[in-house]
Specification:
With 111 residues, this protein is α+β, with helices and mostly antiparallel strands. 20% of the residues lie in helices and 23% in strands.
Length: 111
């Protein structure tokens, strides 16, 4: 969030905010709470190895996992929810890429 009214830097159709961002770290898995700007522990174990098929995910410093909650998309026709959620996740991923590039960090998107 970067605005007083709760606005975010990534678009979300009809402001559904359907994407939850989970952070997989060696210390555990966390849900990012954008309102509080905090990580909430959801699993106290290293789950990075189950977030992807490539070998490097086991060793990545962190892994961001985008999860779409379609129940938040009540005004979007059911047949279009997957497409809308994919667009929202892509916008969020682009923000991560821009941040990483501006801070001399690496980023890899996976599906």
């Amino acid at each position: 969030m970067n605005r007083a009214d709760g606005g975010r830097t990534a678009p979300s159709a009809l402001n559904a905010q359907e994407i939850d961002v989970f952070v997989a770290l060696p210390s555990g898995a966390y849900l990012y709470d954008a309102t509080a700007h905090q990580l909430q522990l959801v699993a106290a174990s290293d789950l990075r190895r189950v977030t992807g098929y490539q070998d490097f995910v086991d060793e990545a410093p962190l892994d961001l996992v985008y999860v779409a909650n379609h129940t938040r998309m009540g005004m979007v026709p059911v047949a279009q929810r997957e497409m809308y959620a994919a667009a929202a996740a892509g916008a969020i991923a682009q923000n991560v890429y821009l941040y990483a590039a501006s801070n001399d960090l690496s980023s890899v998107i996976r599906a």
